[in-house]
């Protein structure tokens, strides 16, 4: 495997050095090919996502395939504009010249993707890296094998391996990849592995984007539409069985509306997933036995508020609400990443923000409220990657805003224009005219030039 990776990377280096990735027409043609291929192979992709995660057809399209098509459509539409040099103002002191920033692809990029949205989180950064003119080695997750196979077939059918190549595998392959010198590493996954990637990249000063996870809180304010909040949380929390990086990890519920919220949430879970979610064909499954066992360790008779049943053979756990959770409980120390939702009562919003800011920065934060002052207080003063007011999860489903973490939940961001920028370096260039040459910067200096400099540079 090591030989194969080194061989491919050398080919990709040469391909980039020979300027094969720079042309607008070539980039656009590949994006179009991808778009059409994905449309034609929608059934295969849906089937693979079903086999890996039990995802329903609707969910696969809504949260993976459709989002990828949107992203590619956006890149095709705006690519010419994104590739153009951006004119900038020139200071008077540099008269006469023109200033601009020219995007340049980094070169050879490594993308490492996780298993929870295996198609979206592989293809989305891949398209952006290609739109920006890079070559890519894409390392998919070893846990979502069926989707990895579909991705490999897509890549092999469309691209020469000098441009894009897919690597399968686990620990050993990851180590081999990280030992190589890339020009950019884009990693999506856990904080633990993110640290390894960051440390390894630092040795060769390789720039990185780290799309990590964390414990994303959801606040239910005293004054809010509790029923609607319950409906939206029941959807966003149990989507993909909570195996979503921006899933509400736990709820802070104002004590005055706690009983009402819990009741509404239970009703919504039954309404959306049925009396027996374990036999609902549109309710997915936990990725593997290890994660299944980890999740079961979070609850027992003493803290189940609702749900708690599971099916070990099918790797399913029903939507489960937990009570009596205090901040020292193990579940409050780790990202849950499953269909388990602790609900914690609060009386002071100031304490809630204080708690959020004194722990690791979450990837997302949600507040349900009708009180503008409270909404502004939470959104202004708590640190988090991104989020929603009166909804959950949907802030990432757009090409018009960047998506990424903050502090411990990630470094850098992508989606739409920001994705193109992430995989580009902007060269700031001054193009100076030669027909005039102002003398004040040259030796010998004198008091007139000194006054001129003070006039221009203040
Ligand atoms: P993970 O960190 O275990 O794996 C991610 C990738 O890293 C995989 O390709 C895997 O093969 C590779 N990897 C695993 N161990 C490695 C090692 N020791 N050295 C080098 N590479 C290694 O993450 P996961 O379990 O696949 O995904 C779940 C995590 O990802 C959660 O924390 C979730 O919040 C996060 N996530 C974040 C986003 C985001 O956009 N911010 C999206 C999805 C998932």
Describe this structure in words.
With 458 residues, the protein is of the alpha/beta class. The protein contains 15 helices and 18 strands. Helix 3 (42-53) packs across helix 4, helix 3 (42-53) runs antiparallel to helix 6 and helix 9 (226-238) crosses helix 10. The longest helix has 27 residues, at 57-83. The protein is globular and about 85 Å long. The structure holds nicotinamide-adenine-dinucleotide. Nicotinamide-adenine-dinucleotide is lined by residues 112-116, 121, 139, 141-142, 170-171, 174, 178, 188-190, 193, 196, 211-213, 245, 335, 337, 363, 405, 410.
> What small molecules are bound in this structure?
nicotinamide-adenine-dinucleotide
What structural class is derived from the secondary structure elements? alpha/beta
Shape: globular
Number of strands: 18
The number of helical segments is 15
Task: Report the uncertain regions.
Answer: none
Q: Give the termini separation.
A: 59 Å
Radius of gyration: 25 Å
Strand content: 15-25%
Placed side by side, the strands forming the largest sheet appear as 10-13-14-9-8-15-16
Mean pLDDT: 96
Residue share in helix = 40-55%
| Biggest sheet statistics | 7 strands, mixed
């Amino acid at each position: 495997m090591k030989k194969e990776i080194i061989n491919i990377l050398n080919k990709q280096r040469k391909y980039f050095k020979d300027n094969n990735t720079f042309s607008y027409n070539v980039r656009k043609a590949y994006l179009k090919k991808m778009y059409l291929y994905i449309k034609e192979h929608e059934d295969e992709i849906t089937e693979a996502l079903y086999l890996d995660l039990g995802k329903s057809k609707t969910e696969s399209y809504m949260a993976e395939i459709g989002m990828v098509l949107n992203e590619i459509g956006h890149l095709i539409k705006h690519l010419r504009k994104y590739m153009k040099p951006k004119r900038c103002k020139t200071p008077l002191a540099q008269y006469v010249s023109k200033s601009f920033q020219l995007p340049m692809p980094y070169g050879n990029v490594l993308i490492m993707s996780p298993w929870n949205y295996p198609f979206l989180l592989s293809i989305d950064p891949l398209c952006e890296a290609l739109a920006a003119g890079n070559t890519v080695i894409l390392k998919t997750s070893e846990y979502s094998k069926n989707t990895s196979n579909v991705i490999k077939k897509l890549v092999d059918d469309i691209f020469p391996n000098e441009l894009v190549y897919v690597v399968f595998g686990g620990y050993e392959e990851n180590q081999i990849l990280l030992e190589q010198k890339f020009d950019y590493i884009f990693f999506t996954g856990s904080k633990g592995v993110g640290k390894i990637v960051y440390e390894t990249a630092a040795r060769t000063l390789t720039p990185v984007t780290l799309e990590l996870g964390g414990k994303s809180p959801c606040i239910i304010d005293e004054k809010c539409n509790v029923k609607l909040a319950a409906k939206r949380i029941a959807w966003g929390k149990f989507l993909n069985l909570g195996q979503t990086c921006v899933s509400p990890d736990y709820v802070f519920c104002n004590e005055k509306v706690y009983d009402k919220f819990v009741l509404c949430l239970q009703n919504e879970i039954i309404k959306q997933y049925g009396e027996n979610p374990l036999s609902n064909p549109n309710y997915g499954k936990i990725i593997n036995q290890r994660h299944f066992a980890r999740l079961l360790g979070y609850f027992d008779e003493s803290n189940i508020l609702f749900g708690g049943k599971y099916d070990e053979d099918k790797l399913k756990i029903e939507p489960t609400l937990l009570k009596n959770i205090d901040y020292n409980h193990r579940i409050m120390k780790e990202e849950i990443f499953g269909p388990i939702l602790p609900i914690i009562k609060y009386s002071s919003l100031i304490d809630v923000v204080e708690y959020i800011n004194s722990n690791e920065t979450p990837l997302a934060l949600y507040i349900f409220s009708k009180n503008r002052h409270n909404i502004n207080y939470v959104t202004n003063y708590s640190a988090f990657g991104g989020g929603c007011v009166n909804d959950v999860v949907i802030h990432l489903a757009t090409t018009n805003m960047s998506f990424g973490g903050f502090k411990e939940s990630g470094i850098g961001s992508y989606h739409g224009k920001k994705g193109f920028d992430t995989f580009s370096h902007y060269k700031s260039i001054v193009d100076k005219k030669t027909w005039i040459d102002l003398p004040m910067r040259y030796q010998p200096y004198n008091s007139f030039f000194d006054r001129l400099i003070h006039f221009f540079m203040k």
